[in-house]
Structures are given as structure tokens and as C-alpha cells.
Amino acid sequence: MKLLGSVPSPYTRKVRVVLAEKKIDCEFETVDVNPPENPVNAHNPLGKVPALVMDDGAALFDSRVIVEFLDAVSPLARLIPEENRERVAVRRWEALADGCLDAGLLIRYESLRPKKEQGAAWVDKQTGKLKRGLSAIAAELGDKAWCHGDRYTLADIAVGCCIGWVNFRRPAEIDVLGKYPNLARFYDKLMERPAFADTAPPKT
Ligand code: GSF
After folding, report:
1. Counting atoms of ligand 1 from 1, which one is nearest the CA of 48?
2. Are 14 and 195 in contact (CB under 8 A)?
3. Ligand 1: which residue has its CA nearest to atom 8?
């Protein structure tokens, strides 16, 4: 198997953390998805990373589909509970964390456009989503050790990748670690795990 992705990509990081936690061997190839014609298009018509190319050449995307597949590939360190209510609670955390990232990335892409073409109202709308999302994550985590239940799951991985990316890129100048001490504590604890430490975005 080969994972196509990039180091700063938080969705790619989610998949890399899952691979490491489950001790699944997988080649990692970094790709630049900025040019309209790029090597990912042949595997994912949406031209986005991560994409997982399997041994038979078929490819999986997006990150949520890939992590579901990987979790079922090996019984080691199950990250998605089987029971329906438990599973959807974990997937809801993932949707919340990924949704924050979706808004954060739109803010970042907009900030890279020429100043006079940037839409302030539209950026404000995305900033509202990101701020409400982070505030919900912080409130729902509270002082608990883990996002869901009493063990480490995909929920923690998704939230950790979200915190790490927001701290790295600072969309809308949000200082997530300064504003939410419980998220700072939670992220520090995740970074003690090799799966997180080895996949961290570059230091700013
Ligand atoms: C999001 C992937 C994505 O936006 C997932 O895999 O969970 N829902 C998808 N990837 C970005 C890179 S990133 O910043 O993580 C991407 O590939 N963007 C290129 C483009 O053309 O949108």
C-alpha cells in the first residue's frame, strides 16, 4: 500500500497516526496538490490528499474512508468502536474536528489570494465556523482524559490533528493553545505518543 499525502496536511496526518498506532506498514509518498494537473488526480478524481493506493492499484479517499478501512484491516488497537451509538459518537467527534479544518483551510486558501480579491464577509463566515467548532471541542472535552469514553480512539486522533494544524497555520490568527488550556494539555499528552510526535507539522 502507498499513502499519497503531504506533511502539513492534517487529514494526511490523521491517516499516518492511524497507520502508526495500528502498526500497519505503508509507503508514504509526498505530493504537491497545488498544480491543477498533479499525480494525485490519477488516483483521486478530486485531486486531494490523502489517497491510499492499495496493492491491487485501487485507491481509497477521503481520510474518513481510509481510516475506517485501516481500522478494520487489523484487530490491533481498535480505534473505532463497533457498537452503533459508540461508533457514531466517535465519528461525530471526527466530523467536528475535520469540519474545523475544512473552515480553517478555506480561510488559509483565501489569505493566499491577492488582497483585493479576498472576500471579508466570506472569511468571517468561515472564521465563525472555526471558532464555534473549537469552542465546542474544548467544552465537550472539558477536563476528560479522552474525547470519547475512557480510552484513546479515532476521536482523539482527529481532534489532535485539528489542534496541531490550527496551531501550525494560525488561520484568522487563532491561538488555539493559548485560548484553550485544556486543548493545550490534551495536545501535549498526545504528542507523547510516537504516532503523533513523528507526524507533527514543521515548527513555525
Ligand atoms: C479533505 C482533504 C483535503 O482537503 C479528507 O481527506 O478528509 N475531506 C478530505 N486535502 C487538501 C490538503 S490539506 O490541506 O489537507 C487538498 O488535497 N487540497 C487540494 C485541493 O485541490 O483542494
Report:
1. 17
2. no
3. 62
Query: Does the beta carbon of 171 lie inside 6 Å of ligand 1?
Result: no
The C-alpha cell at 15 is 491517516
> 96 and 59 in one domain?
no
Q: How far apart are the first and last CA of the chain?
A: 31
Q: DSSP letter for 117, please.
A: G
In a domain, 203, yes or no: no
The reply to whether 63 and 103 lie within a common domain is no
Rounded-to-integer distance, Cα 165 and Cα 190, Å = 14
pLDDT in tens, the chain (204 residues): 999 999 999 999 999 999 999 999 999 999 999 999 999 999 999 999 999 999 999 999 999 999 999 999 999 999 999 999 999 999 999 999 999 999 999 999 999 999 999 999 999 999 999 999 999 999 999 999 999 999 999 999 999 999 999 999 999 999 999 999 999 999 999 999 999 999 999 876
Atom of ligand 1 nearest to the CA of 9: 15
Q: Which of 3, 6, 11 to mutate to test the pocket of ligand 1 (most atoms within 8 A of CB)?
A: 11
How far is the centre of ligand 1, averaged over its atoms, from the C-alpha of 12 (Å)? Answer: 8
Q: Which residue has the cell 507523547?
A: 192
